[in-house]
């Protein structure tokens, strides 16, 4: 009897463990990938200047095109990406003040309201009801070699957020671009 109860409990925990990453994306047949918005991101512990990070943001975003198989969010979600459109995030990221990128607060984290506002501010012109996905970088912690990203699926016309979740990714590699792009890759790999 105890063995049967233990088996049932283990089975229930397995189901719950797998269910936590399942998203409510039913009815969405394709996505536009908008890349990574760094407008809310802060860097803790990095020796590089804010300007070096600012320049690197566009280079990391380009990997969604040049290394599309490695950075394929759609494949992980089971929804095809019809196009990668980086112009909106590149425009937003260019407006970041490099002097405000670094922080001494290792507990920094943007609020849900700030994330929703960032989605609304993306300069996307869409008269059609489509669905987009954007990764919003929240925090890059050199001390722990981790970056935190909010994945946001939204209606491109209304900017209504359909689904969102947070994943962290381990950073690794030589050079600023390689190091932090590895965290992007690892955060995407955690999508189940």
Fold and architecture overview:
- This protein has 192 residues and is an alpha/beta fold.
- Strand 6 (146-155) and strand 7 form a beta hairpin.
- The protein contains 6 helices and 7 strands, in the order αββααβαβαβββα.
- Strands 1, 2, 3, 4, 5, 6 and 7 form a 7-stranded mixed β-sheet that branches.
- The chain has helices at 2-19, 50-66, 73-77, 87-94, 112-121, 176-189; strands spanning 31-37, 42-44, 81-84, 102-103, 131-141, 146-155, 161-170.
- The longest helix has 18 residues, at 2-19.
- 38% of the residues lie in helices and 24% in strands.
Q: SSE layout and pairings?
A:
Layout: H1 2-19, E1 31-37, E2 42-44, H2 50-66, H3 73-77, E3 81-84, H4 87-94, E4 102-103, H5 112-121, E5 131-141, E6 146-155, E7 161-170, H6 176-189
Parallel strand pairs: 1-3, 1-5, 2-4, 2-5
Antiparallel strand pairs: 5-6, 6-7
Helix pairs in contact: 2-6
State Rg: 18 Å
Strand content: 15-25%
Uncertain ranges: 2-21
Mean pLDDT: 89
Quaternary state of this entry equals single chain
Helix content: 25-40%
Biggest β-sheet: count, sense, barrel? Answer: 7 strands, mixed
Number of strand elements: 7
* SS element count, helices: 6
Distance between the termini: 34 Å
Question: Structural class of the secondary structure composition?
Answer: alpha/beta
Q: Overall 3D geometry? A: globular
Order of helices and strands, N to C?
HEEHHEHEHEEEH
């Amino acid at each position: 009897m105890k063995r049967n109860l233990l088996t049932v409990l283990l089975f229930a925990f397995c189901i719950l463990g797998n269910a936590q990453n399942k998203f409510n994306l039913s009815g969405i047949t394709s996505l536009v990938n908008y890349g990574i918005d760094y407008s809310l991101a802060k860097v803790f512990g990095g020796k590089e200047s804010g300007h070096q990070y600012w320049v690197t943001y566009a280079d990391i975003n380009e990997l969604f095109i040049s290394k599309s198989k490695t950075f394929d969010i759609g494949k992980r979600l089971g929804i095809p990406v019809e196009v990668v459109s980086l112009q909106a995030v590149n425009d937003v990221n260019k407006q970041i003040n490099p002097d405000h990128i670094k922080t001494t607060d290792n507990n920094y984290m943007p609020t849900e309201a700030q994330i929703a506002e960032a989605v609304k501010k993306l300069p996307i012109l869409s008269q059609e009801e489509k669905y987009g996905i954007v990764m919003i970088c929240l925090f890059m912690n050199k001390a722990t070699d981790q970056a935190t990203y909010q994945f946001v699926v939204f209606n491109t016309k209304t900017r209504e957020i359909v689904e969102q979740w947070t994943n962290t990714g381990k950073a690794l590699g030589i050079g600023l671009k390689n190091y932090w792009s590895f965290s992007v890759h690892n955060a995407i790999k955690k999508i189940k």
